[in-house]
């Protein structure tokens, strides 16, 4: 298999696909492209959108991280990437869909450069702060069971949720002068130590 990701290793969706292959323990080739320059025609021919991540499995190509991780989980032997229980698995995928399709103000004002590069940005706008409050409230409800993971068993959704928390946590954001809930930051810190995340972070050298 071959996985193409961004050369800056900043994409959360590329991280998800990379983590899937890493957890499965399957050998794969990692390639990178510079998203700031036009795509090569041969890459555009493989990717419907010209974006990343792109998975190649022989002559089969696939884009969109949730499609990629679902394909890997179903076709590659090894540890499960999602809970075995159908309802818990659905909840994990629900969280992934929510994170990918919502929270735009927060993602815009706290891009992944804050997470992976330690860059600092202006204080949150009123819109982004409201988005952050909503996000933290929902995250608190999702983790209200007090367990180590989002849906009982570990899943890729844990990495996705931890990354969203870390957009605020690693940036040092407070809301109304109050630190983020310790339960959420401890969860994010714990998930960030996952070997697949650490392998991704190590790619930057």
Structure, briefly:
The protein contains 10 helices and 4 strands; from the N terminus they run E-H-E-H-E-E-H-H-H-H-H-H-H-H. With 205 residues, it is α+β, with helices and mostly antiparallel strands. The protein has a 4-stranded mixed sheet with strand order 2-1-3-4, covered by helices on one side.
Query: What's the order of the H and E elements?
Result: EHEHEEHHHHHHHH
Main sheet strand line-up: 2-1-3-4
**What quaternary form is this?**
single chain
Might you state the CATH topology name of the largest domain? Glutathione S-transferase Yfyf (Class Pi), Chain A, domain 2
Helix content class: 40-55%
* Structural class by sheet pairing and helices: alpha+beta
Number of domains: 2
Distance between the termini: 23 Å
Shape: globular
How many distinct beta strands?
Answer: 4
What is the CATH top level name of the largest domain?
A: Mainly Alpha
Reported for the largest beta sheet, the result is:
4 strands, mixed
Rg from Cα: 17 Å
- Which stretches are poorly predicted, pLDDT < 50 over at least 5 residues? none
Count of DSSP-assigned helices:
10
Note down, in words, how this protein is organized.
The chain is an alpha+beta fold. It has 2 domains: 2-80, Glutaredoxin (3-Layer(aba) Sandwich), CATH 3.40.30; 86-194, Glutathione S-transferase Yfyf (Class Pi), Chain A, domain 2, CATH 1.20.1050.10. It contains 10 helices and 4 strands. It has helices spanning 12-24, 41-46, 65-75, 86-101, 104-109, 113-116, 126-142, 156-169, 182-192, 195-202, and strands at residues 2-6, 29-33, 54-57, 60-63. Strands 2-1-3-4 form a 4-stranded mixed β-sheet, with helices on one face. Helix 1 packs parallel to helix 3 (65-75), helix 1 (12-24) crosses helix 10 and helix 4 (86-101) runs parallel beside helix 8. The protein starts with a strand and ends with a helix. The model has no long low-confidence stretch (mean pLDDT 95). Residues 1-80 form the GST N-terminal domain.
């Amino acid at each position: 298999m071959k996985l193409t990701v961004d050369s800056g290793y900043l994409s959360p969706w590329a991280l998800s696909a990379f983590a899937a292959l890493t957890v499965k323990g399957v050998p794969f080739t990692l390639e990178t492209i510079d998203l700031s320059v036009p795509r090569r025609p041969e890459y555009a021919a493989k990717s419907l959108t010209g974006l990343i991540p792109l998975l190649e499995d022989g002559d089969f190509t696939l884009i969109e991280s949730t499609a990629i991780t679902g394909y890997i989980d179903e076709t590659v032997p090894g540890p499960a990437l999602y809970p075995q229980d159908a309802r818990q698995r659905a909840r994990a995928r629900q969280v992934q869909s929510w994170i990918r399709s919502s929270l735009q103000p927060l993602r815009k004002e706290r891009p992944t450069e804050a997470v992976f590069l330690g860059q600092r940005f202006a204080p949150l706008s009123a819109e982004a702060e409201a988005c952050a409050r909503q996000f933290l409230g929902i995250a608190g409800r999702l983790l209200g069971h007090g367990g180590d993971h989002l849906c009982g068993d570990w899943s890729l959704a844990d990495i996705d949720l931890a990354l969203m928390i870390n957009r605020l946590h690693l940036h040092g954001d407070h809301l109304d002068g109050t630190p983020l809930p310790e339960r959420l930051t401890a969860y994010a810190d714990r998930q960030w130590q996952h070997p697949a995340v650490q392998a991704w972070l190590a790619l930057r050298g």
